[in-house]
Amino acid sequence: MSEALLNIVNLNAGYGGIPVVRGLSIHVNPGEVVALLGPNGAGKTTTLLTISGILKPIAGDIQLLGSTTIGERPEKIARRGLAHVAEDRSLFFDLTVQENLRLGLTGNRETRGKAQENALDMFPALRPLLSRRAGLLSGGEQQMLAMARGLASEPKMLLVDEMSLGLAPIIVERMLPIVRRIADDTGAGVLMVEQHVGLALSVADRGYVLAHGELTLEGSAQELRENQKSLEASYLGGESH
Ligand code: ATP
Q1: Do residues 182 and 144 touch, judged by C-beta distance below 8 A?
Q2: Gap between the Cα atoms of 167 and 46, Å rounded
Q3: Cys-Cys link to 119, which of 6, 82, 152, 203 (CB 3.0-4.6 A)?
Q4: Whose CA is nearest to atom 20 of ligand 1?
Q5: Which of 11, 12, 15, 234 to mutate to test ligand 1, by most ligand atoms within 8 A of the CB atom?
Q6: C-beta of 46 in contact with ligand 1 (< 6 A)
Q7: Ligand 1 within 6 A of 164 CB?
Q8: Atom 2 of ligand 1 has which residue's CA nearest to it?
Q9: 119, 149 Cβ separation under 8 angstroms
């Protein structure tokens, strides 16, 4: 899969040398939104943490833009074009929206200005809030800021972990099309972990389902949407009892 932005081959990942994700092979192409689905504890967050280099893979390979990231530190992987919007959003609550955004910027002054403008164009609701402290934002605004900060680094590959966590469904419904736009307008690949299967598949091109650390189902978003039974079975399929 040489054209893939992200290509994961036979990955074992976990904690203290004990794999919680086993034999995982998935890929994301340019401009694609790919949903990584599965029940609690399936290993979705572990997979994202391993892709961004925060966790060291136990075995297998992760290729970003055609070359391996194995052995590289998270900062290096980020400089190569990977942004990770973590589940906890990792914002600095005492800093303003503007200051949080600046932390995502790379490059020289001119390109930074443009990158910030582009990020704010995707999330215009943040413009009137630039001087507000991040800690005073609503949950939805905080998620927008976390996404905008990820976008400000002009990533080629964007990882989004549980964007919907703690947000009202109406806010999630408003934000998901923006994920689609990011992929369409910038050509970035997006790998999105999501509990809301229906919502995720409404904007994704493809999906993978993990259960108990193993891939149990994959397909186009349409196939997965149309085949609710396989989808439900795949959630249960990994049950060991
Ligand atoms: P959720 O939606 O609940 O976050 P998930 O699919 O993202 O689920 P992970 O968070 O990747 O799942 O967890 C996978 C497994 O790894 C779980 O059994 C979890 O208990 C275990 N795990 C997670 N973090 C650690 C850790 N720091 N040390 C040891 N085990 C962990």
Answers
A1: no
A2: 22
A3: 152
A4: 41
A5: 15
A6: yes
A7: no
A8: 40
A9: yes
Answer whether 41 contacts ligand 1 (Cβ < 6 A). yes
Per-residue pLDDT tens over the stretch 185-225: 999 999 999 988 988 999 999 999 999 999 999 999 999 99
| 43 within ligand 1 shell (Cβ under 6 A) | yes
CB atoms near residue 113 (< 10 Å): 12
* Residue 153 tokens, joined: 């680094």
Q: Which atom of ligand 1 is nearest to the CA of 161?
A: 7
Rounded to an integer, what distance in angstroms lies between the CA atom of residue 90 and that of residue 86? Answer: 7
Q: Please, are residues 3 and 200 in contact by the beta-carbon 8 Å criterion?
A: no
The CB density around residue 30, as the number of other CB atoms within 10 Å, is 16
CA–CA dist 58, 113 (Å, integer): 39
User: Whole-angstrom Cα distance, residue 183 to residue 156?
Assistant: 9
What is the number of the ligand 1 atom nearest to the C-alpha of 43?
A: 11
pLDDT for the residue numbered 237:
60
C-alpha 212 to ligand 1 mean position (Å): 10
- Closest Cα to atom 17, ligand 1: which residue? 41
The residues of the chain scoring below 70 in pLDDT are 1-2, 104-111, 237-241
Question: pLDDT tens digits for 154-196?
Answer: 999 999 999 888 888 888 888 899 999 999 999 999 999 998 8
Q: Is the CB of 38 under 6 A from ligand 1?
A: yes
pTM: 0.92
Q: Is 7 in the pocket of ligand 1 (CB under 6 A)?
A: no
Contact present, 203 and 223 (Cβ < 8 Å): no
Distance between CA atoms of residues 227 and 167, nearest Å: 27
